[in-house]
Amino acid sequence: MAVVTPARLLRLLNLLSARPWWAGPELAERLDVTERTLRRDVTRLRGLGYPIEGTTGPYGGYRLGAAGHLPPLLLDDDEAVAVAVALRSASGGGASGLESAALSALTKLDQVLPVRLRERIGALRSVTVALGPRQVPPVDLDVLVPVAVACRRPERLRFSYQAGDGTASERHVEPYRLVYTDRRWYLVAFDRDRDAWRTFRVDRMSGPHATGVPFDRTDPPDAAALVAHGVALAVHSLQARIRLHLPPEDAARFIAPTDGVIERESAATTIARVGGDADWIAGFVAGLPCRVEVLEPEEVRIEVRRLAGRLARDHA
């Protein structure tokens, strides 16, 4: 009789998680046990709370069902990192009401992580900045994690990069922070070849590898502000200056960092710069719940008047 081992039970559970259904003989063969031993292992897993369903007969087999008590989870390395990133985001604050539960789950996960994963997740925690809503966008962990580790150590990084116009280049940088919006991840780094701070979209990076060369830079920028400026303004050829008749702290509630850059004008008014197409800016301005003046450029002012006229005609 085969001796029950935790390793075999975990392997059985992993196999059941990998496919929706297994034939009994095939599953026993994969585990190198008899079908009788397999049935005993399944019974033991059921006793631990795993809802394993089985059928008998020539086409009998097993599958991992739903519901029942929540058992321990089996996660591969990338899944563990992904869960930790999501929990880190949820525990960081907001209006979800799940912050405490997320922090508790993150603490439990950290306690059982192997050393090889602890540095990866620790690096992500320490160098990641959320910009705007705390919804974590999709990302390739094979790119994100090496970049995060290089940011934390810190050491110089090389990678291939494809710009928005399709131009490919090799970059050599001193990485500083990872910033994410509700849509994308960005790396903020000092570009050694261009001698300037730059932001790089992580989804346009490939083959990142640390050089092993440490660096010590004492003049880091505000990473979130740098990304916000790039997303809200730098990528747009048309930029408008608008005046909101609101104090700056109130204006910040209506203009997200990725929509515009706020500049204080006085205690009662705020100047904001917003980038985009003229019609988009006009619609954005029209949706602000306060008195707003478009200061420049004239083409946006014309579009605002056109939008106002259409709305007046439609609601006469």
Structural summary, described in words:
This protein has eleven helices and 13 strands. It is α+β, with helices and mostly antiparallel strands and 316 residues long. It has three domains: 6-64, Orthogonal Bundle (Arc Repressor Mutant, subunit A), CATH 1.10.10.10; 77-219, no CATH class; 236-314, Alpha-Beta Plaits. The strands form three sheets. Strands 4, 5, 6, 7, 8 and 9 form a six-stranded mixed β-sheet that branches. The protein has a four-stranded antiparallel β-sheet with strand order 11-12-10-13, with helices on both faces. Strands 1-3-2 form a three-stranded antiparallel β-sheet. Strand 6 and strand 7 form a beta hairpin. Helix 4 packs parallel to helix 6 (115-127). The longest helix is centred in the last third of the chain and has 17 residues, at 298-314. The mean pLDDT is 86.
Radius of gyration: 27 Å
Q: What letter string, H or E per element, gives the SSE order?
A: HEHHEEHHHEHEEEEEHEHEEHEH
Dominant shape:
elongated
Mean pLDDT: 86
Number of domains: 3
Cα(first) to Cα(last) distance is: 87 Å
Quick one: how many beta strands? 13
Give unreliable regions as ranges.
none
Number of helices: 11
